[in-house]
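PROTEIN DESIGN WORKSHEET
SECTION A - STRUCTURE
LENGTH: 119
TOKENS:
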């Protein structure tokens, strides 16, 4: 399956080997095998990497927005709580699956031992 960019496939939640099968069988549960090419996805493990990137990226976005709002408008604290706590959950929840897909695909692309075993 030449021509498949594993990082773009991982970002889309697709198999990094063929780019067609599903990478996840749930929200964050990695499928055991690709349903299109049969590649063994069960051995890949991203560990805590996606959570770290999500915390850093999401935290920067939300903290910057909250700081900008505070400096520009000086709203009461309850506005920050009502707006930025749900925004944090939405941003972090939205970033978690793509980040996990990218890190799993990076294992495949770099031939990490956990993700690829075709010696």
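SECTION B - SEQUENCE
RESIDUE ASSIGNMENT:
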């Amino acid at each position: 399956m030449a021509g498949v960019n594993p990082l773009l496939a991982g970002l889309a939640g697709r198999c990094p080997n063929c780019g067609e099968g599903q990478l996840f069988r749930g929200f964050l549960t990695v499928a055991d095998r690709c349903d299109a090419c049969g590649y063994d996805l069960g051995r890949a493990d991203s560990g805590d990497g996606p959570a770290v990137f999500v915390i850093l990226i999401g935290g920067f976005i939300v903290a910057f927005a909250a700081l900008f709002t505070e400096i520009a408008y000086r709203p009461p604290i309850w506005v920050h709580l009502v707006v930025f706590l749900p925004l944090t959950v939405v941003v972090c929840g939205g970033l978690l699956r793509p980040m996990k897909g990218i890190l799993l695909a990076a294992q495949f692309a770099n031939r990490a031992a956990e993700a690829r075993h075709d010696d």
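SECTION C - NOTES
The longest helix spans residues 77-109.
Helices lie at 6-11, 49-73, 77-109.
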